[in-house]
């Protein structure tokens, strides 16, 4: 059966999450406005899911959790979301990148627009592509080294409970609300580059994607090609957003595979390309895959709530002190 339907389904899920994340951002904006207006603007509770935008706080929280045995009360949701995303990648490849992440959604929109505009997407020469892909691993090593190696557990705990970290989400909001100078130029360049090149930020610069890619190597599901039924049309390789030469593989083992199913959904040869469980002949159903991605991601937050590790315990008076100035 054709799997064409997977792409509209995936894109609907992507945009659903994108709209939800915009809603989280608006809620944070209204929350901050209340305190900065000295209480004149109505109080809107902060949605804790916004901590998904704080992966560094999540990493710090994981280290603190390992050292203390408890998840910190400042940004507990950042830890829960990070652990959930890693668990999703362990089971279902980097599906977070192609089904949920808002950066991935916007990036995909741009390279598809670029394809319409220029009739093709560009790929940097192999030597440059390999060198640039190394950048995200260097960033990942930098963050992991800084947090898990060079920072003592006491310093991590001290930072987590610092005024700076308590309003890390507000700082991020302010950063995007007042973009200017070099950050604005860098984002502008990345947006422009995202038209001719597929997912340049995800592919070259995102340390989160680097981490998930390494974890996803252990995933039991892989795109698998059946040589006997493949007609060597090359469509799978052409449509892959990660430039993986799918047609030349029997099983896609690459850490760059974002589990988007584009190759599988575009293959017209019956049974030639499937998402399969590693080492077995079991074909993964696309609807089941989609349901699992969403349920595992949402389920992680439900577990966080149920165990009391979701809601930030920063009191109202503390926000008055930190944001009312
Ligand atoms: S799209 Fe299908 S038939 Fe064509 S090369 Fe890829 S696996 Fe083979
Ligand atoms: S190999 Fe297939 S599933 Fe993986 S990124 Fe490429 S198109 Fe998507």
Automatic annotation (TrEMBL):
Pfam families, per this entry? Fer4_10, Fer4_5
Checking PROSITE patterns in the record gives:
4FE4S_FER_1, 4FE4S_FER_2
Q: Residue ranges of the 4Fe-4S ferredoxin-type domain?
A: 219-250, 251-278
| SUPFAM superfamilies, per the entry | 4Fe-4S ferredoxins
Swiss-Prot/TrEMBL keywords: Cell membrane, Iron, Iron-sulfur, Membrane, Metal-binding, Transmembrane, Transmembrane helix
Question: Does Cell membrane show up as a keyword for this record?
Answer: yes
Query: Subcellular location, in the record's words?
Result: Cell membrane
- Residues that span the membrane, as ranges: 12-32, 73-92, 138-161, 173-195, 201-218, 282-303
- InterPro entries per UniProt: 4Fe4S_Fe-S-bd (IPR017896), 4Fe4S_Fe_S_CS (IPR017900), NosR_regulator (IPR052378)
Q: What is this protein called?
A: 4Fe-4S binding protein
List the source organism: Geobacter benzoatilyticus
- Lineage, uppermost ranks: Bacteria, Pseudomonadati, Thermodesulfobacteriota, Desulfuromonadia, Geobacterales
């Amino acid at each position: 059966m054709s799997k064409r339907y997977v792409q509209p389904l995936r894109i609907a899920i992507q945009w659903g999450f994108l709209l939800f994340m915009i809603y989280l951002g608006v809620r944070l904006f209204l929350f901050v406005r209340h305190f900065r207006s000295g209480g004149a603007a109505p109080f809107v509770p902060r949605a804790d899911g916004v901590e998904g935008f704080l992966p560094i706080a999540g990493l710090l929280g994981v280290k603190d959790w390992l050292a203390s045995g408890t998840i910190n009360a400042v940004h507990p949701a950042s830890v829960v979301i990070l652990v959930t995303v890693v668990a999703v990648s362990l089971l279902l490849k980097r599906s977070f990148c192609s089904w949920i992440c808002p950066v991935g959604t916007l990036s995909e929109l741009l390279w598809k627009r670029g394809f319409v505009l220029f009739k093709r997407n560009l790929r940097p020469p192999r030597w440059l592509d390999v060198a640039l892909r190394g950048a995200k691993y260097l960033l990942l090593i930098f963050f992991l080294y800084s947090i898990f190696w060079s920072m003592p557990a006491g310093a991590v705990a001290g930072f987590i409970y610092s005024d700076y970290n308590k309003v890390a989400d507000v700082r991020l909001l302010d950063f995007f609300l007042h973009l200017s100078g070099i950050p604005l130029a860098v984002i502008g360049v990345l947006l422009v580059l995202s038209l001719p090149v597929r997912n340049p930020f995800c592919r070259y610069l995102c340390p989160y994607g680097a981490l998930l890619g390494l974890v996803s190597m252990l995933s039991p599901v892989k795109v698998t090609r059946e040589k006997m039924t493949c007609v060597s049309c090359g469509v799978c390789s052409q449509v892959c957003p990660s430039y993986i030469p799918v047609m030349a593989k029997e099983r896609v083992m690459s850490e760059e595979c974002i589990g988007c199913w584009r190759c599988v959904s575009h293959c017209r040869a019956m049974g030639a390309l499937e998402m399969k469980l590693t080492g077995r002949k079991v074909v993964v159903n696309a609807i089941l895959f989609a349901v699992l991605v969403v349920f595992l991601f949402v389920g992680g937050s439900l577990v966080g709530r149920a165990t009391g590790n979701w809601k930030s315990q920063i009191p109202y008076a503390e926000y008055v002190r930190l944001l009312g100035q």
